[in-house]
Specification:
This protein is of the alpha/beta class. It has helices at residues 16-21, 32-49, 62-71, 87-98, 116-125, 147-154, 176-179, 205-212, 223-230, 243-259, 261-281, 308-317, 345-361, 370-380; strands at residues 5-6, 55-58, 79-84, 102-107, 129-135, 137-138, 143-144, 160-164, 183-187, 199-203, 297-301, 321-322, 324-325, 334-338. The structure holds pyridoxal-5'-phosphate (PLP).
């Protein structure tokens, strides 16, 4: 067994019962048994999305789900407003461009959150915007966008509200119907705590109306096909799904049900608060504006004059704790601590014990146990 503790913003450590569920034998994906499993998995996904609408499971990583979300709702040359404040916002915009969609970027400084006012102003200025695409939890910077407040603005416009909740669903508050989200997409290997390989998507009635009038420039991710196959009896997917991954996802969704979705979200918020307090207690600075800090991943500025090797390298090679680095221009400037899925105080205690020692070994004069003390104090509050 691999005993590296993954403190990444996905993939996350997977519980043994989820791994065991994946070892069941394969069944015919067009038969009754799979139909029941697929239906149950989709229904449980809809509960986690907090929507009355149907969900669909795609055999692809989260990016495939992002592509499905965009490619089915706009024709080439139609316009999408794409919020870009990090790596995944860039990806959403790039996907739209690949499909020949006209992209208007709403660029925000990395580490900050888009405001509802900025979105409102962009929609006021251009009535041809057919959809707004947004990353809820920008994993590259550790920022959570105010999707509830943005949803209130979106209700005053016809534009579709397309949200990537890949690194937030089942970790942070996401209420698809209440916030008026038209297309919501997520991935299996983040807060859902299932293995990588699946994405899930749900579409509102308005989104489906758009889908009807779009000549989707995608074969595999054509959502009309997923709807058609999902409505068959037994329910199925248009192409062979990763049956084993779906066994795993269903088991992970059962675990979420047992914990209670709201309890799980509260746990993520508490862990994030403890993590931020521990970071500060070790004399380190947070990268993202704290008011919009993510509750699933914390981005930390690299200590002055230190390298990725000295911090993340020691954490991994000496202490067996894997942290994520910065991406693009943030490479070597930040590191990121993922605390999603089943992560709790135990994993954070190991992480901050190791980080305190690592900082000392890198020549930083800080009390090695200060992070762990701050964790304990936060959990005791
Ligand atoms: C991880 C992630 C994705 C999808 O990445 P994949 O590697 O394709 O699963 C998309 N959006 C966000 C915000 C993510 O964190």
């Amino acid at each position: 067994m691999n005993n590296i503790l993954l403190m990444l913003p996905g993939p996350v450590n997977v519980e043994p019962n989820v791994l065991a569920a994946m070892s069941k034998n394969i069944v015919n994906h067009r038969g009754d048994e799979f139909g029941r499993i697929y239906n149950e998995t989709c229904e449980k996904m809809s509960k986690v999305f907090k929507t009355q609408n149907q969900s669909y499971i795609l055999t692809s990583s989260g990016t495939g789900g992002m592509e499905a979300a965009i490619a089915n709702i706009a024709n080439p040359k139609e316009k999408i407003l794409s919020v870009v404040g990090g790596k995944f916002g860039e990806r959403f915009a790039d996907i739209a461009r690949v499909h020949g969609i006209d992209v208007e970027e709403l660029a925000i400084e990395w580490g900050t959150a888009v405001t509802p006012e900025a979105i409102e102003a962009a929609l006021e200025a251009d009535e041809n915007i057919k959809a707004v695409s947004l990353i809820h939890n920008e994993t590259s910077t550790g920022v959570a966008a105010p999707i509830k407040e943005i949803g209130k603005v979106m209700k005053n416009y016809d534009a579709l509200y397309v949200v990537d909740t890949v690194s937030s669903l089942a970790g942070d508050n996401v209420e698809v119907d209440k916030y008026g989200i038209d297309v919501c997409v997520t991935g299996s290997q983040k807060c859902l705590a299932a293995p990588p390989g699946l994405s899930a998507i749900t579409l509102s009635d308005d989104a489906w109306k758009a889908v009807e009038n779009v000549d989707a420039q995608t074969y595999y991710f054509n959502m009309k096909k997923y709807r058609e196959s999902g409505n068959k009896n037994p329910a199925q997917t248009p192409y062979t799904p990763s049956v084993s991954s779906i066994y795993g996802l269903l088991e992970a969704l059962n675990d979420i049900e047992k914990e209670g979705l709201d309890n799980r979200i509260a746990r993520h918020h508490k862990n994030a608060e403890a993590c931020r307090n521990a970071v500060k207690a070790l004399g380190l600075d947070l990268f993202a504006e704290e008011e919009h800090a993510s509750c699933t991943v914390t981005a930390v500025k690299m200590p002055e004059g230190k390298t990725d090797d000295e911090i993340r390298g020691t954490m991994l090679n000496k202490y067996g704790v894997q942290l994520a680095g910065g991406q693009d221009h943030l490479k070597g400037k930040i590191f990121r601590i993922g605390h999603m899925g089943s992560t709790n105080y135990k994993e954070l205690a190991i992480t901050f014990t190791a980080l305190g020692m690592t900082l000392n070994e890198a020549g930083i004069d800080v009390e090695a146990g200060a992070g762990v003390t701050a964790l304990a104090e936060t959990y005791l509050q």
